[in-house]
Every structure is written in structure tokens, then in C-alpha cells.
Automatic annotation (TrEMBL):
<keyword id="KW-0802">TPR repeat</keyword>
<dbReference type="InterPro" id="IPR011990">
    <property type="entry name" value="TPR-like_helical_dom_sf"/>
</dbReference>
<feature type="transmembrane region" description="Helical">
    <location>
        <begin position="7"/>
        <end position="29"/>
    </location>
</feature>
<feature type="transmembrane region" description="Helical">
    <location>
        <begin position="89"/>
        <end position="107"/>
    </location>
</feature>
<dbReference type="InterPro" id="IPR019734">
    <property type="entry name" value="TPR_rpt"/>
</dbReference>
<protein>
    <submittedName>
        <fullName>Uncharacterized protein</fullName>
    </submittedName>
</protein>
<keyword id="KW-0812">Transmembrane</keyword>
<keyword id="KW-0472">Membrane</keyword>
<keyword id="KW-1133">Transmembrane helix</keyword>
<feature type="repeat" description="TPR">
    <location>
        <begin position="129"/>
        <end position="162"/>
    </location>
</feature>
<feature type="transmembrane region" description="Helical">
    <location>
        <begin position="570"/>
        <end position="591"/>
    </location>
</feature>
<feature type="transmembrane region" description="Helical">
    <location>
        <begin position="49"/>
        <end position="68"/>
    </location>
</feature>
<feature type="transmembrane region" description="Helical">
    <location>
        <begin position="498"/>
        <end position="520"/>
    </location>
</feature>
<feature type="transmembrane region" description="Helical">
    <location>
        <begin position="532"/>
        <end position="550"/>
    </location>
</feature>
Amino acid sequence: MKTKSLFFPLLAISLVFSIIVIFVVSLFIPCPENLFPGFKTGYQLRNFLILSFEYFFPVYIASAVFSYSCTIRKDFEASERPHNFFFRFFKSTMILSLTVFAIFILMQELLLPELYTAQNRAVSKSLNQNSLTILAKQNITLKNYGKAGTYIDKALELDPKNPELLELKELCYVNNNENIDSFPANFELSEEIPAQESTPETLNPITKDENITVEKAIETAEYELQNKNWFNAHYYATLAVQLANDRNADKDKALRLASYAWNMIDKLSTTSDQEREYSLFKAKYTGYNLYQQGSYIESYYHFLDLSTKYPKDPDIIFFLALSKQKVQEFTFFIDEVSDYEFFESHTDKLLKIPCLDGGYCIVFFRGLSILNDRNLNNLFFRDFYLLKYKDENLEYSVYTPYSKMILEVDSNTQKTYPVLLLNSIDKKNKDISFKAVFSGNITSQLKSVLSDLFSVQDFYTALDSSYGVETLSLPQSMELLSRFNDFAQPREILLSNIIFRISYPLLFLVLCMFAPVFGFKLSKPLTRKFQFYWILFIPFIFFSISFLILNFDMFLTHLIFYVVCHSSFYFSLLIPSFLIILFIIFSLILGSQRISGNEEL
């Protein structure tokens, strides 16, 4: 009667026992101090899975050696056809080894990176939740209840039943005397943001210059003239002139409307029927002239001052919004950065990014906050340095305390490109500003805005690689290797990582074939009468094999790096080739094994 092999039950018991030990060990690994309480269970579970995957290699090999040593001779003796035993055994061992090899690769290249990403995301969200609570309390202290309510709502998404947050929310609801739209209500903080077309701020029924036709601008100018809104009429008439080409018949009409509107403005400037109305007109006249001359920052602050005195004046509201829109095309408000420093997801990074003109940029920043909102698409840098190289020569360098990158999409080509705003101003105080410091050969128009330097994808690839090759997938490492001169990671490190990722699974496959051979060598003592000290021998096998594999892992890493640094790419491929040869050799050794009576192999 054929006896069923105990190999798989013993292998399963060994693996389960090892997993239990790993689980107990994972419970003693401390969670980050700032980790959100609701995330701790998931974080510890992922820690357990990460440890299980990282130690799967030595644990499986040790379990296989133990299981083979306990069952090989008994299976041989119970075999109905002993002369065919090793052929069937070799076949089943090969199938099992290749199956486990595939599982090992799946864990190493797909599951482990996802688990590491999830762990980092949990820590990042926890820091965000703590920061949101701090910001909410700060704004409540300043009585900015609308802004505080926005932060609390985002924090409650992470912790819906937090009693402190619920109490703060109720306080904001009772005292909310501020427009809640003062801060983006749907903002999200993320590691990476998708590119999208920026949505312009709505100023009036007609707003953005490039979104208006000549005909519509003339129609609006005529409407404003009828309502004696001379400034608005002149603005739209001038806009129509700018949009019209020389062959457009409407250009002459637009010129006449602009001239008439300006004549009316001049006429009003020489009359003073009422002192208050005249003073207001002169103030608006000054601000409008600043806008027409392209002094958008001065125009913004001028209309901002007027808006505090005349908050309901339609001309002031219109041109304040228009000036603000123009200002944000080449600078940004420092107020945007102050809160986002709490959400810096990247700190102290040095990147080397290929430029579209064939050169490259060296970028360094102390902090990076990424804002992903349905209406905003921005990255905020703190202590931002950029050095532009062409043909290995430094063209120019720039430093600014704060910088803002906007990702925009060209409506014609649908190409995504980054725009760097280098100068910043205070939203309310004209005496506070930060300007970029340049050196080298740079044109004046680039001193506030840098555009089309590099691609968005190259920026994110360089940012990802700055965390080390361990965080990259094998395809990403291969992509970086093909462009090793363009990114921060040296070629030797990238190549070593790629060779190791190929070699390590091959080493696992080699030891999968070595396990039954080594198990045979241990099988002879186990055929004797059971001795109690054998129980102590079992953990010794596990510890010894695991210790040897983990140390050989380190040796293999250093060996690969040494070979890569002192040889060519093709020579370094000898290491995985050697492992393949070892696999063939151990397969042949396994296939040539024989058992005769009670003799050892």
C-alpha cells in the first residue's frame, strides 16, 4: 500500500511556525511616534507582511531542507517503484522550485514596493492630520473660522470620530463669519500630481483675455460705454485692438471706442463736480494707468488699498481681480507657502534633471509641498537652488527662498510643461517680497519665470530616484540606466541594483535545488531511533541556514558592486550567468542521486 508523503505537511508546518515567529517579532517593532491611531493596525500588519516577504527566502530554504531531510528516505522506502523514484522526485522538485521562484519574484518586484509605498503614505497622512489640526487651532486663535473649518473637514476625513476635531468644528460653525472659500475647499496633498489645464479665476462675465473674441470684446465695450463705465469700456476696447489683426475690419471700430472712452476719462479728470467722487475717480485713474503700463504689482496693491475704502465699487473689484490675475502669471503670494510648509513631503533633495535643450539642471531644495486640487496644480519649494548647464558649462544659477511650480497643458499641443515662478510678494503688504538672486548669463525676462526647462516626467523620475534605487521598480531602474548621465543616481549604483535584482532570485532558485541535496545529507541520522536532542537540532538548522543566506546576501551585494565598478557592463552579467550554471549543476547532482539500502547518498 502506497504511503502518502509527509513532505508538504512538514513544509507547511515549518512555514506556518516561521510566520508565527515573524508575526510575534513584528509586534515588537515600534510604530512611528506621529502615526495616526487609526493607521496603527494596518501599519503593523504591513510590517508583518514586509518581514515575511523579506525573510521568505531563508525561511523557505530552511523549511525545505528540514522537510526533505525528514521525508526523503521514508518516501523512497514507501515507493512502489523505487527505480523510478528519483526521476519522479526530480520532476516534482523542479516544478515546486519554479513555482516558488515565480512567487518570490512576484513578492519582490510587485508586492514589496506597494507595501513600502503604503507605509510611507500612512506616515505622510498622519503627519498631514497632525498638521491640519495645528493649522485649524492657529486659525481659530486668529478668528479665521472659515479657513479653520476647511482644515478641520480635511482632518475629519482621516478621523471622523475624533472628539477634539468635532468640538473644533462646532466652534467654527458657530463663529464662522468668514467666507469659507478663502482657502481651496477641495485641496489634497499627495506624492505626485497629475497634470491638468489650469482653470482661470472668474472675474466677471468676461474675464481671461485669451478666452474672448474681438467681436465679444467690442460688444462688451459698447455695453460699458452705454452704462458710462469708462474704465471698463476702455479696457475692453483696448483688448479688442490687441486681439484684432491689421486686416480685421473691427480693429478701426475698436480704436474709435477706445479713443472715445479715454476722452471721457480725460474729460472727467478735468472736472470736479463733487469732491469725494472726483477723488475716487482720480484714484481709479491712477491704478488703471499703472495696469495699462504693465506695472501689475503696483496696480494690484493700489486697487487693494482702494478696496478697503470702497469695498463695493465695481470698477475697483474688477481691476483688483484683473491685476491679481496678471500678477499671478509671473509671481505668487507668500501667503500660499506659509501653510504648506506643514505638508512638506520631500526635504533636502538634490536632483539632476535633463533639459529639453540638451543640457541639464542641478536642482536642490530644502522642502517641497505638493498641492493637488481640482482648480490648482502647484508645487511649492522652500530654499530653492537651480544651476543650468549646457555642454558642461554653467550658464546661470538662481536662488530664491520660495518658488512655485505650476503644471500647465498647452491647449494646442496638449503637452504638459512646468512653469517655475521665482519671485513672491505678500498678499496685503507691498513692503514684503522675496526676489530670486541670479548669476551668470540670463535674459531679463527669465528673472521671474522659468518655463520649458525640463519635462514633468523627468522631474518626477529624478525625484523618485533620489530616495535610492531600493524604492524603484526594476523597469524604472532600467529606464534610469539608459539615461544614467541625466539623473542623480550614479551608473554604478543603478547597474549594481539591476544585476542584484536579477541575481538574487536566481540564487533563490539555485538553493531551491540545493535544498533536497542537503536534505539527503541530513536524512541518515533521522532514520535511526528518535532521540530527544533532535528537537534542539531543528531550530539550529533554521538559524544556521537563515544566517548563512542573509550573510551571503550581503556578500553578493558587495561582490556585484565591486565587479560593476571595476569592469564593463557585459562582464558584470557573468554573475547571473554563473548562478544559472550553478542551477544546472545542482539540478544534475539532484538527478544523479541514488539510495541503496540504508546507505547515505
